[in-house]
Design a protein that fits this description.
By secondary structure, the protein is of the alpha/beta class. The chain has six helices and five strands; from the N terminus they run E-H-E-H-E-H-H-E-H-E-H. The radius of gyration is 14 Å and the shape is globular.
């Protein structure tokens, strides 16, 4: 099993963050998990601004798990921001993980560049299953170009 690098979780619900962290431990995820909880922090993290300038402590992700219901401008604003920066956007995979599952929201997420849209799990067992499936597909089965594997700088 290869460690592709860092996964950036964009989630403001601390219960869901704890469930995700616990699922990472249980599923023995071979990746570092970084967490931000707002549109502003995602932009700062991905831009390497402020505290996030230290790419040793805050490496660029190879994969981002994005909740659409984050404070501020929301998850769609993150997708739009990335869509307007194709050079940055191509550096990692975006998985939307959201309780919202309206057809128009799913369609818009894909139009803005998400590679996957998953329903947010309701309990720990479901979180663990989702993390296992993410690991199986995006880390174990999916082949990434060397430019995404272990990416540590812009």
């Amino acid at each position: 099993m290869t460690n592709h690098g860092t996964i950036l979780l964009v989630e403001n619900d601390q219960n869901d963050v704890l469930l995700m962290k616990k699922a990472f431990v249980e599923e023995v995820m071979p990746s570092d998990l970084q967490v931000v909880d707002s549109y502003a922090d995602v932009v700062k993290y991905l831009s390497g601004d402020g505290v996030y300038a230290n790419r040793v402590s805050f490496p660029m992700p190879f994969l981002m798990i994005l909740d659409l219901k984050i404070p501020g401008e929301g998850g769609f604003a993150v997708l739009r921001w990335l869509h307007d920066r194709p050079g940055l956007r191509k550096k990692f995979i975006v998985i939307v993980l959201s309780t919202a599952a309206l057809e128009q929201e799913i369609q818009l997420a894909y139009e803005l560049g998400a590679q996957s849209f998953l329903a947010k799990p309701l309990g720990f067992k479901q979180f663990a299953q989702t993390v296992r499936r993410i690991k199986e597909y995006w880390i174990e089965l999916n082949l990434l170009p060397h430019s995404l594997v272990g990416l540590t700088a812009l």
